[in-house]
């Protein structure tokens, strides 16, 4: 979220693509595949759901993107958001506890009411409801371009939008039905994934549609929202001082370890421990380590999570993406089998690439 009242003259207009992706698998390398897709599609922010990552963490996934995610031990029903690097420092808080269905809406109301009205709010959510086509009586919170008929859960979405003065963004842009359907499985074609924003910020949004053909999600499809945000200018990473650290890991080398022992023994005057003065002893050890082992550069390593990524893996994922697009256009058994086989090849290829990179260390 960005607090507009805090924006200064050091701000600039920024076109942001906000995507909502559906079910995201935990296959090895999936995070890097997400980053590759975001870079190719020029996406800045990506919401993911039904992830299978465990725990509550943040990690780099490569190409200048960072993933913040929250998952449970069952490896199901997780969620997260992927941000381009320039947005990472604007993150205030990430996390959400699992709520019982009957408490969800009341607790969501409480969260919304706790946010100052002048603060921008954009939500990317699988509400599992159909707001329906047409907007008679609900013109203030939605457009005409939903899918099929409204159901009870969809009415709850509309009621929430009215209570919180928000708008259901998907429904304001006229698209072919194929670019409005967010969930497709077998014969089922529905719209259950939505992007909502405050009504006052609706003018900042220039487009919203479903992207067809990406292979990072299965049944759910990506919803793309293009909007203009004011983003505070942050210091470049090169301008930020990072503490230099002693290279203690070099003690694993016998020659370094022996030199360190000798220098430390000399510094301590031949004693193992200075009498009644541990702090002085500790400082002598640290100073000896700095002199013998040296200090790190202070520069942060980029893409440390995906250093194994190579062109072969990238090409195989590109082939999988094209096969997915081919299957979406012509759902024959032959095309399905081709896509499944390429999925398996990508998994094997990623696993081999990681193993090869580890072996070369």
Characterize the structure shown:
With 361 residues, this protein is α+β, with helices and mostly antiparallel strands. The chain is built from 8 helices and 12 strands. It has helices at residues 30-41, 85-88, 101-113, 152-163, 254-267, 278-293, 311-329, 333-359; strands spanning 11-23, 45-51, 55-62, 65-71, 78-84, 122-126, 166-168, 183-185, 188-190, 193-198, 205-211, 222-232. A 7-stranded mixed sheet has the order 3-4-5-2-1-12-11. Strands 6-10-7 form a 3-stranded antiparallel sheet, with helices on one face. Helix 5 crosses helix 6 (278-293). The longest helix is centred in the last third of the chain and has 27 residues, at 333-359. The radius of gyration is 26 Å and the shape is globular. 29% of the residues are buried.
Q: What are the SSEs and their pairings?
A:
Layout: E1 11-23, H1 30-41, E2 45-51, E3 55-62, E4 65-71, E5 78-84, H2 85-88, H3 101-113, E6 122-126, H4 152-163, E7 166-168, E8 183-185, E9 188-190, E10 193-198, E11 205-211, E12 222-232, H5 254-267, H6 278-293, H7 311-329, H8 333-359
Parallel strand pairs: 1-2
Antiparallel strand pairs: 1-12, 2-5, 3-4, 4-5, 6-10, 7-10, 8-9, 11-12
Helix pairs in contact: 5-6, 7-8
